Structure formats: structure tokens, C-alpha cells
Amino acid sequence: MTADISHPPTDIQTPEPQSAINRDQIITLSQYVHEGDLWDFWIGNIECYGQVILKVVDTFNYPCSDPKLDEYVPYQQITTEATREQNFYNGPLRRLQGTVIPKYFGIFSSGRKNRYLAMLLEFAGWSIGSGYIEMHENWVDDICEAYKHIHLCGISQRDLDGRHILVHPNENGEYRIRIVGFRHAKHRKLTDETGVTCLLEEAAAIRSRYAMVDGMEPSIMKALPEYWAQLDDPEDFRAELDDLVVDRGYLPPEVIAHNQRRGAVYTHDGLRIL
Fold it and tell me: Which domains does the chain have, with CATH numbers?
């Protein structure tokens, strides 16, 4: 199957020229990956880049068009919603392309009235999945390090899920981690205590989930000085971490046991991870 990516939508800001894509470029689609809340995902090949991911949305018939859905997007907002991610790929996260996040090649449209929108990204591997997973501590460290780079760009993802963590082995049998999924992301100020706290909480949630430790433990939080380095009084902020109290809420053992049978995962001290 082939796809014509003939032109960018006229009302969308396109990336700075960084590619050889032109009106004659054709993508050969080799595999359908899955359907998301908004996009359909395909693996394809294009001469100027090799293997790529093509994210396609049919603006006349898209998955989250039902008002009953939590992810509902009105038709009038579909183009804005579909192009939201490019503001992060081409903005504060641009310097991370090809290392922490995939390379971003642009958004294109085709069909009558720009019916189809397609985002083109570097193929960066397969997701680790949304379910419970145990992994080696080196993998956990690499995932946390990747998110730290994103956080230090002043961005919180706000949609933490294993489907957004990609693993791609290279020709030497080594792997690399890439992070995707910035449709719900938000800017945070590294010069503002509230912004820094939000980023630290997200970092803690990631470590809690994959390392199965209390990510809000002060000793872990205080090992991330880069997060508050730009505050007016970073030492005062660091000292406040000593008084950090996490309100977990008490659950009787029988409730925890019931939740575990339904798939919940807890640390030894009752912190729910999943």
C-alpha cells in the first residue's frame, strides 16, 4: 500500500526545512500497528528516510468522535488537536530529536478538504506496553534518564503509559529508549517552584511504576538537583524536600489483597504503582 504525502495543510505551521520530502515522495506502508485515541499508526518506508511511522487521522471519521468518550474531540477542534504534538517536537523538545524522542519530519494532508492528516516520524522501535512489567534496573535508569531530559526542557508529558516508551535494538544488539506521546503534554517553568514540583512528581511516578520503589522518597527526589537549579533559592527548595509527606491514604490489608487480584501492584509499604 502506498500513501501520497503531497502537501502540508495550508493552515498548519510546518517544520523548518530539514528533509528531502517533496510532492513526488511516496510512502510504502508495510504494516498496520494499532489504533489510538486519535490516530491510526502505520509502519512505512520512504526513500529519503528509510523506515518511518505514519500517524494518520481521518478528520471525517476518527476514533474519539463520540461525545460519550473521555477522549472526545469535537470535529471543530480535530485539526488543532491533531497538530498539538508538533508544537513540542518542533519547540522545546527539538534538540532531543533522534536521541530521546524520534526525529520529526512534519505533518501533511491529502484528500478533499484536507480530509486526512498524517504525521511522519522516525521509526524508533516498539512500545513496552501498558500492562505490568518487571525490568532490569538498567532499563529503569535509562527510562528515568530519558524523562529527565524531557523534564529539563520544561515539559511534563501528563500521559504516563508504557505504550509511550519505545525500545529499539541496533545492529550491535544494544537497545535504545525513545519517548513518544506528547498530545497532552504541558509546559512547566523551571524557574517556578510549582512547575519544578510538577516535574518532580512526574519523575517520581515513573520511578515508582517501573522500579517499584517509593519515587517520592526524599533521598530519591534530592538526587535530582538539576530540576531546581534555576530557582531563585535552590538550596531552600532542596531543604523543603526533607519535610515532604506523601498522602497515600490508608487501605486495609483485605482491600489491598482484593485490588491485587484485580491487577493492582503495590510496593512493600502500600504505595500503589498500578
Answer: 2-122 (3.30.200.20), 126-261 (1.10.510)
Quick check: 69 and 18 in contact, CB under 8 A?
A: no
Which residue shows C-alpha cell 500521559? 159
In three-state secondary structure terms, 129 is coil
Rounded Cα–Cα distance for residues 230 and 256 (Å): 40
The residues near 162 (Cβ < 8 Å, ≥ 6 apart) are 127, 128, 129, 130, 131, 133
Residue environment code for 33-42, b if the CB has 16+ CB neighbours within 10 A, otherwise e: eeebbbbbbb
Could you report the per-residue pLDDT of 100-143, keeping only the tens digit for each? 999 999 998 886 778 899 999 999 999 998 877 778 888 999 99
C-alpha cell at 252: 486495609
Phi-psi map region of 129: left, alpha, beta (phi>0 left; psi -120 to 50 alpha): left
Q: What is the pLDDT of residues 152-194, one digit of tens each?
A: 999 999 888 999 999 988 778 788 999 999 999 999 999 999 9
